[in-house]
Amino acid sequence: MVVNIDDDFNFLVRKISKSSGIVLTGYRDSYLRRRIDLRMKAAGVDNYTSYSGLLERDKHEMKEVINTLTVNVTEFMRDRTPFLFFREEILPNIMERKKQCKSNIVRFWSAACSYGEEPYSIAICSKEVLPEEWTVSIYATDIDEKCLKGASQGTYSKEQLKNLDPSLVIKYFEPSGENFKVRDISKLSIRFQKHDLTGEPPISRHFDAVFCRNVMIYFNENQKIKMLKDFYNSLSDGGYLIIGKSETLPVEIRELFAHVSVKEKIFKKV
């Protein structure tokens, strides 16, 4: 009997994709094979058929391979210009709108927050711009439980902080061995919570801005539409949506949002 390794591999990828809701067909085969082979070695399995069987029996191993395949880039304010736009244009606008309704609470959602660099970056920008007595509430969600655990600890290497101005590092972090730990910041609440963008309703509502950057590349069109409709429903009127620079809104969604910055891929709920 001749074993077709490619067929076994493709069957395995379809199984993982179906279980996770992540579309893996856009990934390079070499990347998928390399990452899956790492998990197989860790699990003591030497062929794709046996590993498919293991995933069928072991939900924990399915979580492990999904975590292995999910790319989690770990830097503060990676791709600086969207955060500069957020700080210089969006936050002042939100502040003016809040003053008109006599509110001093702002709410943000960092969707697919990875190890927490994005929600903490949002927090730093907010605390730098908004009055000291204002409250900043951030929901930070991800499907990866390991990421959320690391994010909640708030400890980062010098390399991960390289995009931050040194004065901000001193202000918002304290040394922790060879690393840096986020200081306690008054009037700031960050809730780290597991959430599946493709299968669950919005984590909350009445957000002033939703960040979901470089996530849609993992999803098919139906999943993108579902997710973006959820973002629309979770935003306050006039709330902002910030996506990745290489991403576009599906045609079915475009009437729900107006461009704020074409370059930075920032939109506003209409």
Topology:
Blueprint: H1 5-20, H2 29-43, H3 48-57, H4 59-69, H5 80-100, E1 105-111, H6 117-129, E2 135-142, H7 145-153, E3 155-156, H8 166-172, E4 173-176, E5 179-182, E6 188-194, E7 207-212, H9 221-234, E8 235-243, E9 257-261, E10 266-269
Parallel strand pairs: 1-2, 1-7, 2-6, 7-8
Antiparallel strand pairs: 3-5, 4-5, 8-10, 9-10
Helix pairs in contact: 1-3, 2-4, 3-4, 5-6
Explain this structure.
The protein contains nine helices and ten strands. The protein has helices at about 5-20, 30-45, 50-55, 60-70, 80-100, 115-130, 145-155, 165-170, 220-235, and strands at about 105-110, 135-140, 155, 175, 180, 190-195, 205-210, 235-245, 255-260, 265-270. The longest helix has 21 residues, at about 80-100. The N and C termini lie far apart (about 60 Å). The model has no long low-confidence stretch (mean pLDDT about 90).
Comma- or semicolon-separated keywords:
single chain; about 270 residues; alpha/beta; Chemotaxis Receptor Methyltransferase Cher, domain 1; Rossmann fold; 2 domains; seven-stranded mixed β-sheet; three-stranded antiparallel β-sheet; 10 strands; globular
